[in-house]
Design goal:
Elements: H1 21-31, H2 38-46, H3 50-65, E1 68-72, E2 74-77, H4 106-114, E3 123-126, H5 136-149, E4 154-157, H6 160-170, H7 174-184, E5 188-189, H8 199-205, H9 212-224, E6 228-235, H10 241-258, E7 261-268, H11 284-297, E8 303-304, H12 308-311, H13 313-319, E9 326-329, H14 336-339, H15 350-359, E10 363-366
Parallel strand pairs: 1-9, 1-10, 2-3, 3-4, 5-6, 6-7, 7-8
Helix pairs in contact: 2-10, 2-11, 3-11, 4-5, 6-7, 6-9, 9-10
This protein binds ligand V47.
Ligand V47 binds near residues 90, 192, 265, 267 and 307.
């Protein structure tokens, strides 16, 4: 397996060409490293010339990362799917006594963490439902127990929504809750739960979650405490272009203030088995456009991730030429998208991720959660005689 892309599949550079006058003006801004505004974001969402939008996003992506494309060896752990929120967007959450509801005992969660550990996982990605009975202490013990058993593994756990819910139940502030998690061994937070910040949309897709302002405020606190986080945007449901532009600009403003976001992940809505199952699935074009527009608008985010589980490996490869520089990781066992009808594999091996990246003409770089390169020795083996 070559570590760098074979020259045969290297994309040839071509000049910027478009009939869309708005994009011609935007090219000058992008060339000059000038910030795009809300109108630019809308123009990017509405331009008929997706290839020119992608060209611009690729320019920014290559300016930041060249051909480097990041992936990691991680494992998802979802300690419970029991959830009081009943969000219309979600197919994963269950009421406590509903068929298929589960909650892992702590030992079960530790066993789950250890299974599939053979590829030397560098990150556990831990998210779950808003359980009505599990106390904060269960989650603190989960984090400290994982840290003591797997001290070299980065613990990226709990969305801002889970932090705020656990804080309320424990009658603590969000800040104090984050502090206790940090003390227990939490290293960073994933980007979930952001959905779309606009109230109108949140009322439809996730009525019982914290509002957009509280999500942003909790992220602000985490960053000020030295905890990094990611940010997501769920698109392809009832939001419009203005809602998406507003979401991106709010994230960019917070990033100007804290610098604590690492990666932005646009997430395509999967309608199967949700209360919004009548909505159509996103198309490849919408997926690619969301990657490109985020790369262009979020000029202060170091990374944009094309999460292969959500986009499919094929669209994720294409996204690597439309602004994305990361495809996420091995995952091993994915539940949230698969409950909502995803047909992608549950996980992928390291070598397969590298092949996807190489065949997109990019250079695979295994990273840890903080984007430090991971160096692996060739596997050695011995034969007993
Ligand atoms: O917040 C839930 C979304 C998110 C559905 O930080 C759905 O590295 C589509 O945030 N269709 C959780 N999306 C996943 C997430 C994530 C994934 C990978 C990497 C990182 C990271 C974060 O999944 C939720 C919600 O926005 N979601 N249900 C659904 N039916």
């Amino acid at each position: 397996m070559p570590e760098t892309a074979p020259s045969a599949v290297r994309a040839r550079q071509h000049d910027f060409q478009t009939d869309d006058q708005r994009l011609l003006a935007m090219r000058e801004k992008v060339d000059a490293g000038e910030r795009l505004n809300a109108k630019d974001a809308l123009d990017l969402y509405r331009s008929p010339d997706i290839l020119a939008v992608g060209w611009l996003a690729n320019l920014v992506r290559e300016r930041l990362h060249g051909d480097r494309t990041y992936f990691n060896v991680n494992r998802h752990i979802n300690p419970t799917n029991v959830c009081v929120a009943a969000c219309r967007l979600c197919a994963f959450g269950r009421k406590k006594d509903a068929p298929g509801a589960y909650t892992m005992a702590l030992d079960e969660a530790f066993e789950t963490a250890a299974s599939g550990y053979s590829e030397a996982v560098t990150e556990f990605h831990i998210v779950g439902g808003l359980h009505p009975d599990l106390p904060l202490q269960y989650f603190l013990d989960l984090i400290s127990g994982l840290k003591s058993r797997f001290p070299q593994v980065h613990l990226k756990a709990f969305t801002m929504v889970e932090i705020a819910y656990l804080a309320r139940r424990a009658k603590l502030s969000n800040e104090e809750t984050l502090r206790r998690f940090k003390q227990a061994g939490l290293d960073s937070l994933p980007g979930g739960g952001a959905e779309i910040f606009a109230d109108r949309v949140r009322h439809i897709i996730c009525d019982h979650k914290i509002d957009g302002d509280e999500w942003l405020e909790t992220a602000r606190m985490a960053h000020k405490m030295g905890l990094r986080s990611n940010a997501t945007m769920l698109y392809g449901h009832v939001e419009n272009d203005e809602d998406r532009a507003d979401h991106l600009l709010k994230l960019r403003a917070l990033q100007d203030e804290t610098g604590g976001f690492q990666t932005f992940i646009p997430l395509a809505f999967h309608p199967d088995n949700t209360a919004l199952r009548h909505l159509p699935r996103t198309t490849g074009m919408l997926d690619i456009r969301n990657v490109a527009v985020s790369r262009l608008v979020l000029d202060n985010f170091p990374h944009v991730k094309a999460y292969w589980q959500m986009l499919t490996p094929k669209i994720a490869q294409i996204a690597l030429r439309f602004g994305a520089d990361d495809i996420d990781g091995t995952v091993i066992e994915e539940k949230i998208y698969h409950d909502a009808g995803a047909t992608t594999p549950q996980g992928m091996r390291r070598q397969e991720l590298m092949r996807l990246i190489c065949e997109a003409g990019r250079e695979p770089v295994e990273r840890d959660t903080l984007y430090r390169p991971v160096l692996r020795e060739e596997a050695t083996f011995s034969v007993s005689v």
